[in-house]
Specification:
The protein has 142 residues and is mostly helical. Helix content is 75%, strand content 0%. Helix 2 runs antiparallel to helix 3 and helix 3 packs antiparallel against helix 4. The longest helix has 28 residues.
């Protein structure tokens, strides 16, 4: 079985995910979800009905998979109240994205982008303020 050579971007992404800390991986998940939601939002500008539906559907599903991964990675026993609030928020975002995807309306996608952007900024701030590089804020998400 022969493997296709990776292009430089794929190689970079593979190495970045293999060498990232748990906290950096969470940040990468937020970035991925936001990227897919922006692509889904762009689908509303497409004239072709097939492209419109596929672009929105496929990108919302990818973003939902990432939100599900974030949700599933929460450590409910050690994360306390914060993990419980994040679980509720991730479940809410998932429902809003599902609704937007089914009805092909942008409101839930925009709201999800806003909420995930806020979470991403808070996560990045928490990572940048970490004094001990061996102690990752991923304790709530690992």
């Amino acid at each position: 079985m022969t493997h296709q050579p990776l292009n430089p971007w794929q190689s970079y992404r593979r190495i970045a995910t293999q060498t990232a800390t748990p906290g950096q991986l969470v940040l990468m998940l937020f970035d991925g979800a936001l990227r897919f939601l922006e692509q889904a939002r762009g689908g509303f500008n497409l004239d072709d009905p097939g492209e419109f539906n596929l672009t929105i559907n496929n990108n919302v599903l990818r973003a939902q998979a990432i939100v599900d991964e974030l949700n599933g990675s929460l450590d409910m026993s050690r994360g306390g109240e914060l993990s419980a609030h994040l679980r509720s928020l991730y479940n809410y975002i998932d429902r809003r994205l599902d609704e937007s995807n089914r009805t092909k309306t942008p409101e839930g996608i925009k709201e999800s982008i806003d909420r995930l952007t806020t979470l991403r900024a808070a996560w990045a701030e928490m990572l940048s303020g970490s004094q001990d590089p061996t102690r990752s804020p991923a304790a709530i998400a690992a």
